[in-house]
Amino acid sequence: MSVQVLHVTGARPNFPKAAPVIRALHQRDVEQQLVHTGQHYDERMSDVFFRQLDLPEPDVNLGVGSGSHAVQTAAIMTGLEALLLRERPRLLVVYGDVNSTLAGALVAAKLEIPVAHVEAGLRSFNRAMPEEINRLVTDRLADLLFATSPDAVAHLAAEGVSAERIHFVGNPMIDTLLANLERLDVTRVRATARLPERYLVATLHRPANVDDASDAAELTKAIHAAADQLPLVMPVHPRGRATLAAAGMFDHPQVRVVDPLGYLEFLSLVRGAAAVITDSGGVQEETTVLGVPCLTLRPDTERPVTISHGTNRLVDRADLPAEVRIALASPRPAEPVTPPLWDGRAGGRIADVIVDFL
Ligand code: UD1
Ligand code: UDP
Known about the structure:
The chain is an alpha/beta fold. It is 44% helix and 15% strand. It contains 16 helices and 13 strands. Helix 3 crosses helix 4 and helix 10 (213-227) runs parallel beside helix 15 (320-329). The chain is globular, with a radius of gyration of 20 Å. It starts with a strand and ends with a helix. Residues 11-13, 39-42, 45, 66, 72, 97-99, 130-131, 205, 237-239 line the site of uridine-diphosphate-N-acetylglucosamine.
């Protein structure tokens, strides 16, 4: 049978979003192929997710690797164009807002292959973020737009996307989290990282925080002031490692630096944390569902439901120490309130829409 659905993935946050969709389509006997663009390639940025999340081995790895935005996007487009001309899938599915997402949507649209965008409609309204450009263009080109939150639906409607193309389905990244809750082992990861009962987790990789020496210096000051309050474990994304090291980030006795962690190890640490400091999109959502206070070092977020329904707060670097103090002193709600449809069934809803479409 020819391929019906071809998934394009490539960067760390794509994998927990794609896993439940691929599984649900498999249960519905849809013929699928999985492409890995190779945008992320370190074992700990890629392979570990395939193992832990039971993702099928990619049918193709384009092996594009790192590069400037244009170089990386163009390499993905060139590789994908040849593949799509051969395979001619009936639908191409892209995830999130990374360069692999944009490249997949552009190539498919020009070959008149319909595009489905999982996590459509998120907007930070900040075009200095490369992801915002990727979101805007991908949504412009997509035929099926799967939204994770009501605000995303509203943004798409305001941009003129017709209602029949927009599907509010919930959040597949949260499907993956809920499906793996029982596998999270806080005691074990705490012991491995030699952490006491109360500790902080920090993960930071946005260009605005880690690319320039002056930003990295400010960030280091803020994180050190947080680590004065509680031991802090920081799995370091490869993007910022050198700049943060040069800024002295790792030279604090209470900062434990580790390589990027596997999905289960990372979320185990997050689940047990007194608070999380981040600029990650996915981590804002996961802390919301786990009920762990999240301090997001960004001026804006494309995920406002994590503030209105969750534990997230947007924080300035200068205010971080005080915000950590407040988070540590505040009682936790007994039951985290979660955004609508973040119920573990988004993958099934997406698959049902796709089957109808096919
Ligand atoms: C990308 C996404 C970002 C997402 C993040 C998730 C874009 C524009 N950005 O950012 O939205 O939040 O992934 O983690 O798509 N590197 C390695 N090993 C790897 C991968 C990257 O060493 O396996 C290093 C390289 O030096 C590379 C740098 O990290 O130049 C940045 O990688 P890149 O994929 O360009 O962007 P991210 O910052 O990872
Ligand atoms: N994550 C992980 N190990 C880490 C840091 C993050 O497994 O050391 C997971 C995190 O739980 C979430 C995903 O990676 O599922 C988010 O990816 P990332 O923060 O790189 O990208 P973003 O969401 O900001 O685009």
